[in-house]
## 1
Amino acid sequence: MSVEPVAESLRRLVDHPIAAAADGGDDPLVVSADAAVLRETLRSVASLADAAADDGDDDAPGCVRLCGPPAALDAATDEFRTAARAADLVESDRLDLRTVDDRTLPSVLVAAGRALAPVPLPDGRAVALSTDESAVVSAVRTAFAETVAAGDRYRLGVPAYSRLLEELGSEVGSTTREEFAAALDAPVTVRGPDDTLDEIDAALLLGARNRAQLYELSEWAESVGLASRATVSSRKRRLEAVGLLATEKVATDVGRPRQRLVLADESLASVGVSDLVRAARSVLVDPGAR
């Protein structure tokens, strides 16, 4: 049996076999109790699916079966964009997420006629043992396919990324949609480790920058399953209280006036999306510093 040591970045180590699986063969299978392995696999599958869509072909891996313990999957999907993109992949049958209550589960990736056992390092690299010995690969796939099949479906609890943006554009406007997508993709992530600002806050701030109505954003958030109207209203009041948001009344033909969202600090209307997210987070962390 030939076993080869591999050392490179964890992302590249995961990318190679999953990308190679697009050429045919069995669907990729990944099991791990390590959140880093699960997270990079999710990002790899999303990136490969995006690249295939951009090229206008179906040259993407089949349904990737991914399995881990609940706590590891929770940690792997704690960043909103990763979770929302994973929800996209589940809806399009590109991803099957399963969970098993086994924190000792080893990290194993089987794809494109190869089995790997990756071990992430603290600096973002990873080492792995890899083999393409057909008997070994078959035995590993069979053993862990049974583990995945016995697992429960993992529920992400977030709306699919493409539906989130599509309905935001329809309900609120294309500019807000594009800026919200940019915020989710920004180097300064929307949902940070301090949990001071998340995707709901970002949608409100970007809606305010584009003078959207609170009613429109609330309708969108509730219809896609992002947040209830009550949650959106509560977040709006919090952003008002720290001096980030303000509202204007909008007259209607029937009923009470609606509220138009505006930025309380007009200077934030012209900054980049990343700078807006960064500024809002700093205010929420220390309101007195404003």
## 2
Amino acid sequence: MKHHLLRAFILTAFALLIVYLSRSNQLSLYIAPRMELYVKLSALGLYAAAIHQLFLALKKRRQQHQHTAECGCEHTPSPSVFKNTVIYSLFIFPLALGFFSPAGVLGSTAAAKKGVSFAASTNVQPLGTEPGQLAASLPEPSASIAPKPPTLEERFPYDEYTKAHAEYGMKLYQKPNITVPEATYIETLTTLDLYRDNFMDKTIDISGFIYKEDDMGEQRFAVSRFAMTCCSADAIPYGLMVQVSSADDYKGFAADDWVSVSGKLMTSMYNGNEILTLKLNTIKRIEAPESPYVYANYDF
């Protein structure tokens, strides 16, 4: 009977942990918003399983008898104290961590292990956006006629996979200053990377935490945010490299500080790759947002 009671306690504790994380607004630190409903519904299943274990405990108490191989009832688990302690500890330990350890936010330490992605367009390649490919596809102007600038549509060629980014890029192109918003953080960085030639020297505003690696040198650092797909285990940091004239330009700022930076978009070489880079204009410290992670916008 005691095993059923202990199982009921563990199941109830897991359900209460979900409720606690939800009420304290910490659930989003572990899973993406689109998964929260399923996790909350699972708490109901845990409650139901706990009630079933209580029922079995009461039933066993009322029907105590001498067990035999032919009685057909459920027999007690192993009498080994060590074995039972190990098995139940596998469930109690994560519960203790969930209730008593402070909720952590992924930052520079995790970014160093995962590596910051400076090429948001890695998995999306539009037609005609390789360096020089767009220019080569445009008709050669006559020597006696002034060259005609490409139309907006010609600047943003697309295929079936990048149509939404091309349309978004046309809107961004017409803005004097471009802000990377939280709701479309990944999509904005992807668009800037896909059509980078169209956005050179544009003023870009972006916020995130400071990430620094030794091979970046003293005149560069990254501003990034973790993008979560399902849960914190699959979160990947995306961001932009920031170029400064000297280390004094961001003196007083340290890794994991949340900042808002503004600068002119350009490119630079990093680890053998040409990446988007901001030439710093301004930097200011900001409070960490309530939700430090960003998510793919499925309405994009």
## 3
Amino acid sequence: MPLLHLIILSKRPFSSGKAYKSIWNKELDESPLLTITRDQTNAIAAVIQDRFGDQVEVDFCMRYGNPSTQSRVRKLVASGCTRILFFPLYPQHAGATSATANDAFFRALMQEKQQPTARVVGAYYDDPAYIEALGRSVERAYAQINERPDILVVSYHGMPIRYREEGDPYHDQCQRTTELLQQRLGWDDCEITTTFQSVFGPEEWLKPYTVKEVARLAREDGKTKIAVIAPAFSADCIETLEEINQEIRESFEAAGGRQFTYIPCLNDDAAHINALSDIISANLKGWVD
């Protein structure tokens, strides 16, 4: 039985218990990332079931946290799985995200005496259906706002500039996603901009930094109404629900901003689920009919 493996990974550990507490899913006593990932998996499983019947099983694991990559691989091999399609749910490829997810997957396979055939899904930063899903999410959000934002800030997870200099494609793929989103929306350059968040440590990171740029937009450019979207995250997590919607919002408002709209990640939105399911179907060719 071919198995599709869906992976959502934490980008980095957070030491702030207060930050986690502010976004915690108290009803299920779990992180919103886990809740959303499960919802995504169930939604994709329904689509894949409709397309391929019982030929494909859909599951998920996490690079940091549970269910772990190793535990899922072990379970699947023990159940007789002979083919695994491994899908890191990072639209843009980075050595610190997609690559480490793949590393964890192959390390898990190394522990198995009976190894299934494996495929890995690549980056989908320019996939037309993914861009369409992003475009629709922006249009829905703008339709619900009384005063149109002056600019859309497209905020991506940051990384040290050194990584780009060493050949990491992440920065260029982020810029391309923004370009394609702008084309999909039919907007002018002044209506959209790219920034990078989650900066930490002593190194210089990709710029402009989101937390500083939103303040500059309000203070220097007079853009007091903004919207922020985070296309690098396939599911809302601490970097979006806490960092963007709390810390970055506070920076903007302290600089004179008066309207801040956070546009949620695509999560289990139907257009997103269909986009991911199409990518999965394409990568299953030759394995299932």
